[in-house]
Amino acid sequence: MLTTDRGIRVLGPADLDEFLALTARDPVANVFVEYRGRSTRLDTRWLGGEVWGRYDAGGRLTSACHVGANLVPVEADEEAARAFAERALAKPRTISTIVGAHAAVEAFWDVVGPEWEDVRELRWRQPHLLIDHDPAVEPDPAVRRSVRSDFNNLYPACVAMYEEEIGVSPEAAGGREMYRARVLQLISRGWSFARYDAGRVVFKAEVACVSPTAAQVQGVWVPEDRRGEGLATRGLAAVVEVVRREVAPTVSLYVNEWNTPARAAYARIGFRETARFSTIMF
User: Fold this and answer.
1) Start and end of every N-acetyltransferase domain (predicted)?
2) What is the secondary structure of 73-127 as a DSSP string?
């Protein structure tokens, strides 16, 4: 097999089965990259980037790295993460986020950190959680899937959540139309859930990506003046119930280590920690 530096080459549609076998080693933690592989068939035209594969001397795919807006090491040990980092340094940086298993992200950052100095925030140890059973609290019956007519009420809540979580507006630098399209896409897929009180969003969450094994949840949010009422706990329980019944048997998410109220809510629902992620944002 012809490979490039340190056994790394760009993967394509012919490599999809081998790539999916790699993500299947931990299908819940790897749900994002598996979703990207399945939805694009590793065709760079649809990926908006590349997936790099690293091979051993026998020609076996041992790790990978998704390189789009998000750079995500896949089943990468320290040596593989460093090899991917060296390849990344040889190209102009186009990514906005590095995210993945803590050990792999840390090894990657050891190499690129001195060169990629414009980092905005490092979140080193984010608990990765999953639930594969019924929620332990009563779901909120008022939570439902959003529909197209909810958009004008939902969109400001999505912007507020993004600004609070990421620290910048999703509409910055001309991003408004792209973000509006993303929110509409989630609605159209049935992946947007919310509770609307007199038209106002008082809880929301989305499914970010899906595989046959798992669905990853993102954007869990309650407006500041309604926090402490249990809306997030019962609301997310409702999301878990529907997603496990209709989308995938396991629901996962990752949370900032310092977000004690959210972690407590997830624990009450029945989520358990299985790993630690890290996120580096530019």
Assistant:
1) 141-282
2) EES--HHHHHHHHHHHHTS----SEEEEEHHHHHHHHHHHTTT-----EEEEEEE
